[in-house]
Amino acid sequence: MDVKRQVEIPIEYDGIKFDEGLRLDLLVEDKIICEIKAVDEVNPVWSAQVLSHLKLTNNRLGFLINFNVAIIKSGIKRFIL
Q1: H or E, element range at 9
Q2: What does the CA dihedral 26, 17, 80, 31 come to, rounded to 10 degrees?
Q3: Residue span of the structural domain in which 54 resides
Q4: Which of 53, 79, 55 is nearest to 65 (CA)?
Q5: What residues contact residue 24 under an 8 Å CB cut-off, 6+ apart?
Q6: Is residue 53 within 8 Å of 24, Cβ to Cβ?
Q7: Mean pLDDT of all residues belonging to the chain
Q8: Residue 47 phi/psi, 5° resolution?
Q9: Cα 25–22–77 angle (5° rounding)?
Q10: With the CA atoms of 71, 73, 43 and 29 taken in that order, what torsion angle do they form, in degrees rounded to the nearest 10?
């Protein structure tokens, strides 16, 4: 299984490429984006972040995973485009 950490995503807008764009926590098999957190409360901005990452990379599946929960399945949110 191929897993890449801290993958940089360049942003292109109006023909201008910004190399210092976004960074993915994990990219699995070049298809699945995983945003990893360990916090008491999940910020709604992180959901928007995962959706933005999916759109910019043309991927369809992403996860927001919070490890600071009693039961791990309650800390996983799936996104599909």
Answers
A1: strand 3-13
A2: -50
A3: 3-80
A4: 79
A5: 4, 6, 7, 8, 9, 33, 34, 35, 53, 57
A6: yes
A7: 92
A8: -65, -45
A9: 45
A10: 130
**Identity at 80, one-letter amino acid code:** I
Distance CA 50, CA 46 (A): 6
Kindly report whether the global pTM for this prediction surpasses the value 0.85.
yes
How many domains, the chain? 1
Query: Closest Cα partner for 61 from 23, 35, 22?
Result: 35
Render pLDDT for 10-44 as a digit per residue (tens, 0 to 9).
Answer: 887 788 887 777 899 999 999 999 999 999 998 99
The whole-number pLDDT of residue 45 equals 95
